[in-house]
């Protein structure tokens, strides 16, 4: 158990998803008081149904602000695990899908940093799972990778902007993880990839990084 988390209040955004839910579980197991923001409350896993939650959508700053206001108070940490994926060449991915990728992955991340800065305690952390796609250029994934690269830029700059306020900004660029997200793509079929990491392993590394005060979490930090 990481005693760092005992009694601290953490918000997990996207807590109904595979990585968000696993993050909530491990933070709770380590003694944190965990609350959630989700788009669809009915998707919250049954073992997390007891956690306080608010409905919100990171694509809309107003929606996210309302959810934060509903939860109230401040946080020792905010972890954004919300994201969307799509596959296909630049010519094949429809414009509305490109817009959705950027609204969720890029604008959503910016909204989390912008509003999270006002509700994160001094010494706290704002983290986001941008994923390895932020650092790679893969055929058939141009729109997705571009949206994640934009999110990565927002996190890097956010880290500099919030340093004076003693708030850490942790960009989590985990390798491919077996969350089932590729099967829920907005469009297209994923290219062949080796088997990814297990969600529990990825989250264990994230929890360790937060406890240790790490400033960046690139894909090679997850090497087993």
Would you kindly provide a written description of the structure presented here, covering whatever features stand out?
There is one protein chain. Strands 3-2-1-4-5-6 form a six-stranded parallel sheet, sandwiched between helices. It is globular and about 50 Å long. Helices cover 36% and strands 16% of the residues. The chain has helices at 18-29, 61-71, 95-116, 142-162, 199-212, and strands at 9-13, 33-38, 53-55, 75-80, 120-129, 168-172. It is α/β, with parallel strands linked by helices. The protein starts with 8 loop residues before the first strand and ends in a 12-residue tail after the last helix. The mean pLDDT is 94. It has one domain (3-222): Rossmann fold. The protein contains five helices and six strands. Helix 1 (18-29) crosses helix 5 and helix 3 packs parallel to helix 4.
Q: Using the 3D structure, state the CATH architecture.
A: 3-Layer(aba) Sandwich
Overall mean confidence score, pLDDT = 94
The portion of residues assigned to helices is 25-40%
Helix vs. strand class = alpha/beta
Radius of gyration: 16 Å
Task: List low-confidence stretches.
Answer: none
> For this entry, what is the oligomeric state of its chains?
single chain
Given this structure, which CATH class is correct?
A: Alpha Beta
- What proportion strand? 15-25%
């Amino acid at each position: 158990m990481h005693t760092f988390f005992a009694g601290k209040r953490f918000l997990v955004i996207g807590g109904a998803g595979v990585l968000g839910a696993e993050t909530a579980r491990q933070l709770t197991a380590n003694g944190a008081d965990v609350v959630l923001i989700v788009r669809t409350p009915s998707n919250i896993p049954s073992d997390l149904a007891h956690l306080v939650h608010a409905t919100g959508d990171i694509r809309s700053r107003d929606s996210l602000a309302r959810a934060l206001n509903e939860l109230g108070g401040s946080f020792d940490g905010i972890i954004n695990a919300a994201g969307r994926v799509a596959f296909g060449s630049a010519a094949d991915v429809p414009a509305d899908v490109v817009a959705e990728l950027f609204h969720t992955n890029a604008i959503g991340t910016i909204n989390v940093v912008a509003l999270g800065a006002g509700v994160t305690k001094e010494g706290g952390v704002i983290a986001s799972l941008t994923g390895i796609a932020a650092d790679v250029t893969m055929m058939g994934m141009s729109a997705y990778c571009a949206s994640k690269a934009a999110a990565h830029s927002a996190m890097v700059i956010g880290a500099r902007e919030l340093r004076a306020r003693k708030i850490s900004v942790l960009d989590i660029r985990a390798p491919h993880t077996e969350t089932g997200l590729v099967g829920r793509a907005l469009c297209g079929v994923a290219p062949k990839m080796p088997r990814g990491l297990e969600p529990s392993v990825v989250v264990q590394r994230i929890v360790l990084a937060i406890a240790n005060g790490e400033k960046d979490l690139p894909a090679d930090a997850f090497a087993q």
